Fold:
Amino acid sequence: MKISTIGAGPAGCIAALNCVNENDVTLYEEHKTQPVQCAGLISKSGLERLGIELRRGIIKNKIRGAIIVSPSGDSFLVDGRETKAYVIDRREFDHHLLYTAVDHGVNFVNKRVRDLNKLTSDKIILATGTDYYLHKRLNLEMPRRFLTGAQLEMNIECDNNFVELHFNTPDFFSWIIPTGDYARIGSCSTKNPVPYIENLLKKIKRDGRIKNPKILSKNFGIIPIYDPGLRTDYGKIITVGDAAGQVKASTGGGIIMGGISAKFACRQDYEKRWRSEIGKELYLHLMINRFLTKLSSKKMDRLFSLIKEHKWILEERGDMDMASKVLSGLFKNPRFALKFLWQLPSYALDIF
Structure:
């Protein structure tokens, strides 16, 4: 079977690689160098699920936990005591996946595809990221809600073992991700994220953490918010990755979930298989996001205080990708469950 994959990001490369053993696969990519719009933090367990081994040059830093900062500024440390995630050079990561696919027999064409009728293919995999031109042209369903992300790189003081999550935005959070040499400072919002980064930078400056005020780089991008009703399989054509909205709504991460879905790209029951594998997890991430974004800052402080009391559960069961593992750990703990249920009526006032 002849298969055309449009887009050579992670989802496209993983889909092509998983199809090439029994098919003639061509991978199309319009950019000579993939644009980078990513915080570059990827879970170790997620890479293991995908069977991806990173060469040394891709890994910028190893992360073992997080410093979580509530809206009022109260913070607590979640320490996994071993490597839980990698900070990666996203461009090198994408190149690694592409070269791996080509080494396994995938044909690569550096060409822009705008008319699928010109492709003599039995199957077409759309892995076009957040470029929805072909969706619109073909009248395919596409994500309807998005976050806007902004990130800059700067040399600041930070603990290289931990990322920082600052819940200083009304509908997401800001982050500081240490790379070893510098830090990636970013934020997401359904509106303009720049003011939240500026507020975080002011805090960093007040704390005397800026080593050099020079901004090394900036990047902006959009992140689709998962829609459980979105169709991704049209017979000859399927969508995968960001093109299918397969993104964790609570973190904005899409590499692992898109990659897991891409492994089923050649199956006739593609949509059924990826939903069976990660549909529940993506839905839980969506529910977490909806719950947190509806809470007032005061209620979120109260929730984080409760989680702080039981942070050992996050340290033992924390998983960046599988929300069910974390939630089951929390709610199977009688003390956490009882206290949460006691506080639930006050949360309900914000939600409803």
Remarks:
- DSSP finds eleven helices and 15 strands in the chain.
- The chain has three domains: 2-62+88-143+225-287, 146-224, 295-351.
